[in-house]
Amino acid sequence: MAASGAIAGLAASSLVLGDTHAFEEGLGRGVGYLGVAVGLLGRRHPLGVVIAAVILGFMSQGGLLVYDLVPKELTEVLIGLAVLAVAIAAPLVARLPRGRR
Amino acid sequence: MSGFFAAVFSLGFVAQVLRISIPYVLGALGATLTERSGIVDLAVEAKLLFGGLAAALVAYSTGSIALGIVAGAAAGATVGLVQAACAIGLRADHVVVGVALNIIALAGPRYLLQVTYGEGTSSPRFDGTGDAVLTNPVFWIAVVAVIAVPWALIHTRAGLRARAAGDRPDALRAAGVSVLRTRVLAATVGGALAGLGGAQLSLSVDAFSADMAGGRGYMALAAVIIASWRPGRAAIACLVFALAEAINIQLQGHVPSVPRELAQLLPYLFTLAVLAGMGGGRRPPAALGRTDA
User: Which residues in chain A are contacts of B101 at CB distance < 8 A?
Assistant: First the structure.
């Protein structure tokens, strides 16, 4: 747990050192939450987590690009729906016979 | 400092504690029902938010607080139904479903408000229930629920079935009762209770705002765990949370030398301390969170 805390701390330090250059209140707002989503989307597998993080990063940044057309809240709803979809799909895939996975 | 003690030892302070406790108590009772039937209830926050949103929008458009309360319960029940359908019907991981619903509940209402009223964070204002406690119908619903939920869990057939679904689903199935149906029912009723808690949040301040749950759903679940899944004790834990929050408010008002941020930490530090102090002895429902049962 200490190691996992250290890794999460690294995430915020990259924000502070690379982007904002200062500590601000509400700095990590939403990131921690989405971090849980990433972990779950990646099905708790290190490689899966990296893939999920890139996909979520793509969705968030893509959401900013189309902000004029689509409110960013809808992007977040979409991320929630994606997590839900993966949760529902996982047991269905597990039940498929070997050859058809 | 004397002003602080005068404020704390007053009837108004008692009313304040009771008022603050309402969403916690209703959320915790709902979570108790859901969890006792075997579903991990991480979506209390989502039920509070959608309950609060529905209550505010209906109270605003109809001018009726009663209809707002009904809408809040219905919205919470709907979230509970979706949660049970995913977690039990489709055997999705309970924790993931809860987190997903909470993510949707943080952003979904903002989107709906943006589209409907062009104002992204709060609903239009209406005449709500205000600060009153004894004339607030949601308070009395909470009082009835505090008595009825523990009683129903032990003394009614539906309560027995819900507990069996959480502890021994195989026994329930052998008795010829559908585990799926029992859990869906428990999650729906539990969701309605949490939705009522959300209705209290928005009806008491005359508007819904997208961040108004503020982690109360997680606190309510913590209360359930502290109470070892017993509804009466969970309600007492919620009263203690509300006490810590009310003391924090009075500290800020009367003792400016205590930093605001430090005082705001009080309820959470308290929860952590109680959780840590009560270490062992908690017994969750035996089949809680299992997707194979």
Answer: 80, 84
